[in-house]
Amino acid sequence: MALKIDRELVLASSSPSRKMLLEQAGVSFEVVVSGVDETVPASLSPAQTVELLAERKGKAVLPLRPDKPIIAADSVVSIDGLILGKPKDDQEAKATLRRLSGRTHQIFTGVCLLANGREEVFHQSTKVTFYPLTEEEIADYVALGESQGRAGAYGIEGIGVVLVQSIEGDYSNIVGLPVAETLRRLRKLLQA
Description:
By secondary structure, the protein is an alpha/beta fold.
């Protein structure tokens, strides 16, 4: 099938969401976590941030698996010109959800592809609009534990889907990897 990639890939990420997306796409892969430092200059835009981090992750894994195609990715949530990281605790998760309530934010995912001695780095952005949320809805959602470890304090592939009013762009990008674009670009890299 033209959509398939017939080689085993390396996913340079421990993200369960990225693993799920590649499994749904029928891709054979192994996970190799980079463990790189994720600090970046505050002056970088969200797009520059995710591209830099994805490239850093991919290049850290390349010496470990030099003969396999590598996919590395990083995602951030941005609103009001700020990058919203993963909440440190429930209070921070609630504050993040209040900020997103009734408004549109963007998810940026940077992807680094390494194959056949070549590299391609790109990003994709998707706009997400939340319904206005009550304090009770915010507290109930945070109490579920789904906010922890998630940029923007929610997971659209889980119960967080009920917070979302509309999406403009690629759904899988919100989950953590623009999987269709990633696999199309990787196929071209493997054929070149």
